[in-house]
Every structure is written in structure tokens, then in C-alpha cells.
Write a structure and sequence with these properties.
The chain has 282 residues and is mainly alpha-helical. Helices cover 55% and strands 8% of the residues. It has a three-stranded antiparallel β-sheet with strand order 1-2-3, with no helix packed on it. 25% of the residues are buried.
Length: 282
């Protein structure tokens, strides 16, 4: 809460809860600098706010102007503007923008449009989405754009279904060579997509990253994505994976954290055949 007292700003805040010590604090300024109110927003920021508000006005209903206003912003450098533009387009009938999305040439706009199409299109459009994504050159994309590309692939498969064998091989031909990458963020996304597609030797590569990772967040992520992988394991890789769960006792998280880790382990056990279960019983 911000109030004015003798023309000086005063900030009040409280702490506590969940059986911890509570307290009420008052913060005041002491000094010679001016405390006059300022807007905090320059002209360019104000223009961005107005643009975002305009795009958000199209959310929730069909509007004849929405596509023309929002489409140029699918490649806006500000990700929040891009998000607002995509949502505006998603609320318009798909038939009005599907062909334009599939024909989009700008890499950032194309990836944003493909995410919209994966969320709103019919399964029959999956091949068109994959073809559009295949036009993007991985080596010419920034890291943030590479992450967007991986998420576009992942969302396409999650929403529209698994690819056929030919499409799977084409996607693997583009992505598999880049795993592992030098970036933690890219490795996490690549692992998720490549495990889903059951890339050759993806278990070995992901296990290596899991065991070498310095943070529990990365380790848990790799354990999570590996839990449903059924093919391509060696028994030693399986053993290393399940032995990892025995090292998580020192991990720290919220009240449900240990339960989540146990659920990952249980789902991984469910993916084993009877022969594997017998070999790993100890």
C-alpha cells in the first residue's frame, strides 16, 4: 500500500503466514532528492502499452479488423506483444488465416503463427505446419528463436497427434544433430522433443546430461522426460537412471516435491517390460 503523508510517499507491507512470525513495516524516504510523482513511462513504452491494449481488445471474440491489425505484430521483438497478437488471431475463424500462416516467410512470425495453428487447427494441418517449420534454418536462428522452434514442434505433436514415420524421420534429420547443445535451455527442450520422437541413442545422451547436471532442476527435467521412453535403452542405462532416484534424498522443494519425484519413478517403472523389471529388481 502506498500512501502520502506530509507530501512524502510511505510504503507499508506485511510479512508472515503459514505459522511464521508476522509483522507490519512502514518504509519512508529520508533525503534531499525530489519525491514528486513521475509517470515512469516514456513515449516508446506508452506506445507499446497502447499497442498491446489494442491487440488485447480483440481477445475473446471475432472481429473483422483483428487479423490485419495483429498479423504484423507476430514478429514484434517484444514477446508480450507477439503473445497478444497471437491470441487475437486465435480468436478469429481459422479458415480466415490458416493459408496466410502456412505461407508466412518471416521466421519469427512463422513460428508464432504455427503455434497458433497447432492450438486451433485440425489434425489434418499437421503436415503443413511441419513443412513450414522445415523452411527455417536452425543455424540462422538466435537461441530464443531456436527455443520457439522446438516448442512449436512440441505443441504440434501434443495437440495434433504423433507424426507418421516419414515426418518423424524428417524432423529427426533436422533436430537430432544438435543434441546435446551448449545451452541448458536448448538441451531441456531438445531432450523433450527427441525423447518423444524416440531418437536413436537419446537415452544415453540424456542420461549423460542428467548425471552431469549441476542443478536439481535440470536433473529432474531430464528424469521427467525419460520416464516414458520405452525403446533404445541398454540395461546399464536403465540401471543408471533408476540409481539416480536414490540420490535425490538431499534435494529440496515444496511440500509435494518428494511425491512428484516418486511419481516420475513410478511412471518409469510402468514403462518397463517384465524382463527389465526382473533384471532391475535390486
Amino acid at each position: 500500500t502506498l500512501s502520502l503523508h506530509d507530501a512524502l510517499p510511505i510504503l507499508y507491507f506485511t510479512i508472515g503466514g503459514r505459522r511464521t512470525q508476522s509483522g507490519l513495516y512502514r518504509v519512508t524516504y529520508v533525503g534531499d532528492e525530489s519525491t514528486a510523482m513521475v509517470s515512469g513511462v516514456d513515449a516508446s513504452q506508452q506506445a507499446q502499452r497502447e499497442l498491446r491494449a489494442k491487440l488485447e481488445s480483440f481477445h475473446g471474440s471475432a472481429n473483422l479488423d483483428a487479423i490485419e491489425v495483429a498479423w504484423p505484430q507476430l514478429s514484434n521483438p517484444d514477446r508480450f506483444i507477439r503473445y497478444a497478437a497471437r491470441i487475437a488471431i486465435e480468436h478469429q475463424p481459422v479458415a480466415q488465416w490458416q493459408d496466410r500462416a502456412l505461407a508466412e516467410k518471416d521466421p519469427v512470425a512463422s513460428m508464432t503463427a504455427m503455434i497458433a495453428l497447432a492450438r486451433c487447427g485440425e489434425p489434418s494441418v499437421q503436415s503443413g505446419i511441419i513443412e513450414a517449420l522445415s523452411r527455417l534454418d536452425w543455424n540462422k536462428l538466435s537461441q530464443s528463436e531456436q527455443l520457439s522452434l522446438l516448442r512449436a514442434y512440441g505443441l504440434t505433436f501434443a495437440r495434433l497427434g504423433p507424426p507418421n514415420a516419414k515426418t518423424r524421420d524428417e524432423v529427426l534429420g533436422r533436430l537430432d544433430q544438435h543434441f546435446p547443445a551448449k545451452s541448458r535451455s536448448l538441451n531441456r527442450e531438445l531432450a523433450a522433443v527427441l525423447v518423444y520422437l524416440e531418437a536413436p541413442q537419446v537415452a544415453a545422451r540424456t542420461i549423460k546430461l542428467l548425471l552431469a547436471s549441476q542443478t536439481q532442476e535440470d536433473q529432474v527435467q531430464y528424469a521427467l522426460v525419460l520416464r516414458t521412453l520405452k525403446s533404445g535403452w541398454t540395461l546399464d542405462e536403465r540401471r543408471a537412471y533408476f540409481n539416480w532416484f536414490n540420490t535425490t534424498g538431499s534435494f529440496r522443494g515444496g511440500h509435494s516435491f518428494s511425491g512428484f519425484v516418486q511419481n516420475i519413478r513410478n511412471e518409469a517403472i510402468a514403462s518397463l517390460d517384465e524382463k527389465e523389471k526382473a533384471a532391475l529388481a535390486d
